[in-house]
Amino acid sequence: MKNWFSDGAFRTIIRNSAYLGSSNVVSALLGLLALSCAGKGMMPAMFGVLVVVQSYAKSISDFIKFQTWQLVVQYGTPALENNNPQQFRDVVSFSFGLDIASGAVAIVGGMALLPFLSHSMGLDAQSFWLAMLYCTLIPSMASSTPTGILRAVDRFDLIAIQQATKPFLRALGSVIAYFGDFGFAGFVVTWYASNLVGGTMYWWFAARELRRRNIHDALRPRLFESARRIPGAWGFVWSTNIAHSIWAARNSCSTVLVGVVLGPAAAGLFKIAMTFFDAAGTPAGLLGKSFYPEVMRLDPRTKRPWMLGIRSALLAGGIGVLVALLVILVGKPLISLVFGVKYLEAYDLIQVMLAAIVISMVGFPQESLLLMAGKQRAFLVAQTFASAGYLILLIALSHVYGVMGAAFAYFFGQCLDVLFSLAPTLRAYFQRHLLVFKGSTEGGK
Known about the structure:
membrane, Lipopolysaccharide biosynthesis protein, 445 residues, transmembrane, 0% strand, mainly alpha, cell membrane, disordered C terminus, Poly_Biosynth_Transport
């Protein structure tokens, strides 16, 4: 472990993860406070409606949007390392254009689909128009260019500030709505406004950083003109977009699917369990966000990025075990305190899902390593098979075992995700290693 921390890249990952971790701890607590106020301030059915509506807007956004932050990190980080501001400007312009195009498609698609899905989601006439209102947030949810800019320029501290601000505003508004007895409408306004302000902050931070580095005219959308100067850009964005859309169907749509199969009340319970799971799995997400930019600064032909992945995976796995034990100890009394005894059934779901935390945390470096090695299509194939298996299990087990079946399906889905990504990751490493070994042998001859 002492040798691990002598690696500058590993120390940077830990430092940036600490930035994000400090804000995420605050965000998780504030998120629980907001959910607690909403759960206590409304009947379970209305709480479930609010959760389903928000999940629907996020699902549409996740399903359609391009992963432009990965594009900025993949091509923009090497450009900055090589002191090539023009290439970085082209990457940001292309990424911004994709955000605008995908946001427009997402908002139209979300509103067009809603009349056909509202009955299945258990929405009445009033809730239907609420969901329509939430669809106007989709463009801000679909924009990830500013987060890519901040990661590429190593400003994780600004990302941490943004990530803490949105849940703070939501929690503050939820407390006011609860004690002011503003009911369902009060929580709707609060959750909507916090999402809108949080999305705007990212753009402001990113624009300020570009000005500070004298990178002008980057935030001008140029789809085809900029893409022509970035080799392989279209193939990369389509592969990562489809892979993430599949991921969205597996994760973000889970709550919606549980609501469709079992009703809004079950969706509310599943959302509470997912909130605990997401909070417990936060360290892996933080390490992943700081790990990807760092490996893009390393030479994939050497062992260094791959060893960095192993060290980061072992560290995340150890943290996962500790977090799982902590959730087992405090989960039940925390749910009773925060949400009330009427939501205590969610603890049974959490116990089933906890084992998946360690598995998902150990496997977090695989996506970044595959993208670094140019194997985004292999990652897409792995995501396709893993997600198809999960969705089949979610629908089948929910029908047979109710909401508990959804929890088991989520656990098996995480296992499939890690296992299906492991094979292409190992293959990519050995291919690189054999090519380097062959080149050195021929050079010796």
